[in-house]
Amino acid sequence: MKRTLPVVAVALALLAASACAGASGHATLGRRVTTTLPNLDFLTTTTTAAPLPSYLSLIGVATVPNLQVFDDPAAPAPSRELPNPWVFSPEFPDQTVPQVFQVQEVRADGWTRVLLPVRPNGSSGWVHSTDLQVTPTDFRVKVELGAHTITVTQGFNVLYTGPVAIGAPGTPTPTGDYYVRVKIKAIDPTTAYGPYAWGLSSHSDVLESFNGGDGEIGIHGNNDASVLGQDVSHGCIRMDNDAITDLTMKIPLGTPVQVLP
Asked: How distant is the alpha carbon of residue 217 from its chain centre?
């Protein structure tokens, strides 16, 4: 069965808290949109012990109000609890986003290891498998910093490849494996963030905070196409406006994002 996953289209308030250049001005809420996860019912949580096909990854969506995360399945108590859904901006407490994760491992004894959207980048934790709904996806995003390119694929099909602007030398874009945690629609598409943005599970390695936020990294549009191919941002990845508009309606929350040197 095809399952619909809500995608919050929100304001520039969240963008202003990310490690990106440009002033957003006063935030105004956007509209809510939806995307769907692919219909890949042949793969279930009962079969994830087997290696996944190379074109698939697993998205875990929390199903409990507070998700307990353990450093190890043998730990006597959780190391953290993540509220589900989470409030992306204190200014707009009624706008929330489901907790989603990239699933790294599913064990037969009832534990699942997930990639966490916390510092340091690459952190993972263990959750009870019964606290997640796991769904496969064949969408992937790859960013190659040296080549200044982004490539979005679905299965073996390339949906888009094009130039990007990346972090300046003093505020580089961190490499690693991440995922799309929130998708944002801007009311004013003419700012430095363009019409859409994807907030990632990544954080800047040099900016502990930015405009009052935690220095989170995102992929977003831009208001100056001439910067594409350059190193100009505070760590975020800027891409073509038309491309991100099209792709935002296709990729699900939890889509893996690989950032390569």
From this structure: 9
Nearest alpha-carbon partner for 234 in 248, 214, 253: 214
Domain extent, residue 194, equals 1-261
pLDDT band, very low/low/confident/very high, at 144 (cuts 50, 70, 90): very high
Which residues have CB under 8 Å from 46's CB, separation 6+?
none
Nearest residue to 243 (alpha-carbon basis) of 138, 141, 162, 148: 162
Domain total of the chain? 1
CB 99 within 8 A of CB 62: yes
Given a cut of 70, whether residue 78 has pLDDT beyond it is yes
CATH of the domain at 84: 2.40.440.10
CA 58 to chain centre: 14
pLDDT tens per residue across span 98-133: 999 999 999 999 999 999 999 999 999 999 999 999
DSSP track, 102-114: EEEEE-TTSEEEE
Question: Quick one: tokens of 137?
Answer: 């996806």
Burial call 233-260: b when 16+ CB within 10 Å, e when fewer:
bbbbbbbbbebbeebbeebbbbbbbebe
